[in-house]
Amino acid sequence: MKRNRIRRWCAVVFTVVSAAMGMLCGISAATAADEAALGAPDELRSRLSAMVPAAQCDWFAKSISQNQLTQASDAQLLAILQSLESSALFCPVKRMIDQTPEYEFLMLRRERLNESDTLPDVPERMFVRMRHEPLTLYARWEKDGARAGQEVLYDASKDSKKMLAHVGGLFGVVSMNVAIDGAIARAQSRHTVRNLGMGFILAQLESDLERSRARNVSTRPASVKVARDAGRRYAEVVYDNPGMPPYYAKQTRFWLDLREPLIRMVESRDNNGEVFEHIVFESLERKKLAPNAFDAKNPEYRF
Predict the structure, then answer these.
(1) Model confidence over 108-166: pLDDT tens digits?
(2) Is the separation of the CB atoms in 109 and 123 below 8 Å?
(3) Which candidate, 2, 52, 82, 132, has a CA 20 to 30 Å from the CA of 27?
(4) What is the mean pLDDT of residues 164-172?
């Protein structure tokens, strides 16, 4: 009896180990297949470098949509990032913005208003609803960030120079129409409400790249690498510029999402190498917004 129990136990162990090895081999085979689909790093460099920027953009956008980049090895990702032109690196994000008339996003923002300021420890956490044509947006500062409770509503078709706003906290009960670039707005940010979102970030990058072209300065990133955060990988792209002004930043560092066409993080440094702006996009949802999304009488809002 004892010998039979041992035989049965050994059979169970063998079955479990065999199944585990089968799963491991299956995963390894799947990973190898994904890598083979993209090609070896040297092959990727050769193929992508031979493409014009528009073709690179198509290839990069397709690779993101088909989830190939999440399965690529670090070596393959590095080969891709080193081979793509700047316009191709950011082309999928630009296409997404251009093809998405309405969406909402959640962002974290820290910025220094003056050179003598220090970068805030606590970021603003902002929930934003946006429509591109005409530019219309609602923004709310969430309770777990700086300036919690503050809200603004902007509609360029009604008044391109003013927004409806109220401060947060206990006294945030009075709403006012204020200038988007007036003293109240400038006391809180280097930007106007029109500058919220990825579209402005892309436009700022393109302006700096255009300045470099005009000066015969390389528009290639100064460095690229695979970055990691919370178990996920990102494409880190860094630009070093001659100086600010006229450039927006001396150095700008981006994290591009490998799962969808999004900028996850952008960080800007001044001529002294100090961070003056740090933005993280926590989420972005492309959707048809409700008819009252930009109505001050929306019961979700406190205007």
Answers:
(1) 999 999 888 999 999 999 999 999 999 999 999 998 888 999 999 999 999 999 999 99
(2) yes
(3) 82
(4) 72
Residue type, 261: P
Helices (H), 72-195: 74-83, 86-98, 183-186
Residue written as token pair 């400038």:
186
Mean pLDDT of 88-93: 97
Token pair recorded at residue 153:
């509503």
3-state secondary structure of 25: helix
Q: Please check the confidence at residue 285 and state whether its pLDDT lies above 80.
A: yes
The continuous run of DSSP H or E covering 12 comes out as helix 2-38
For residue 12, pLDDT over 70 is answered with: no
Residues in the chain: 303
Q: Which residue from 199, 194, 207 is spatially nearest to 161, judged by alpha carbons?
A: 194
The C-alpha atoms of residue 161 and residue 194 are separated, in whole angstroms, by 10
Give the predicted TM-score (pTM) of the model.
0.84
Structure tokens that stand for 188 in this block: 């809180």
Please state, as a whole number, how many other Cβ atoms lie within 10 Å of the Cβ of residue 43.
12
Residue type, 21: M
Query: Is the preceding omega at residue 246 within 30 degrees of 0, hence cis?
Result: yes
Strand partners, 108: 125, 280
Burial 238-255 (b: 16+ CB within 10 A, else e): ebbbeebeebbbbbbbbb
Report the distance separating Cα 134 and Cα 240, nearest Å: 34
